[in-house]
Amino acid sequence: MGCDGGTIPRRDELVRVKQKPEQKDKDAEREFRWRHCTLTQQSLQEPIAMCGMGRLYSKQSVIERLLEKEPMPETAAHVKSMKDIRQLNPTPNPAFTEEDKTEGLLDTRHAPYICKLIGLEMSGKFRFVALWSCGCVMSERALKQIKGSVASTCPLCQAPYSVEDVVVLNGNDEDLELMRVKMEMRAAKRKSSKKDKKGAKKVEVKAEPAEPEEPVASTSKSAPVEKPTTSTKIKAIAQLKRLGAVNAMQDPELKRLKSDFSVAKDPKASDVYKSLFTSHKTEKDQERAHWVTYNPFYN
């Protein structure tokens, strides 16, 4: 019944059974997704960007891959230009120390980023979302609490956003399907806005053609138009000069310069002003001498 030494073997030691597949460490996988670039599998480096599916990237790595024109992996096949990613504005965690930045640590105490609204750490234990319109990052719980009071406005930067702009970061399979639909909605919206802008520019540039002037019907009996000659021009100039000289002689200001001009005959001058001169009627009846030659001893 027993083996050598009196040991009794178990069934699983004698019968070969199908080995169970090795199970992944869920915590380690979660930490890796939130702290490493999806494209290069290296630690995330600022500036951090996301794609329409909610995956995280180092923006520098995406730019280098696009410039080198290398094929993207299957997880990032939808990233074909810089328009397919959006730079994020995460809030740094003040409790994140230099010890937490050391690679290879299994016991990570703090996450590098938090939710600015309610203080939850962005470690993967809580669902986080980002807005495609402005790039602000916050927890899904905070967005749901604030969305009832302030609709369609980012609670961090007050920028407007729509439903398709809310992207779940590192979501599950159901979230990925929803993010794919939202990504298609944003692409359709962007194309329609481009068409509207092009139509508006065409309307502004396009001008209505000017109506051609109707030609006047010419008749054979119409009198010929006389063209001005040099002699007629000289005569017209001489007439203008003569009229100018006549008008100058009729000017009342020029009449005052004549020798026979008298203030007493000026219709515009007042009676008080005329009494200052010897030509006034009161001076004719005065018996004493003029004030210039007046001498009280002799007059």
Automatic annotation (TrEMBL):
Residues 9-30 have a biased composition (Basic and acidic residues). Residues 188-200 have a biased composition (Basic residues). One of its GO terms (biological process) is DNA replication termination. Residues 1-30, 187-231 are annotated as: Disordered. It comes from the Eukaryota. Signal peptide: none annotated. GO terms for cellular component: nucleus. Pfam families: Rtf2 (PF04641). Belongs to the rtf2 family. This is Replication termination factor 2. It comes from Drosophila yakuba (Fruit fly). The gene is Dyak\GE18483.
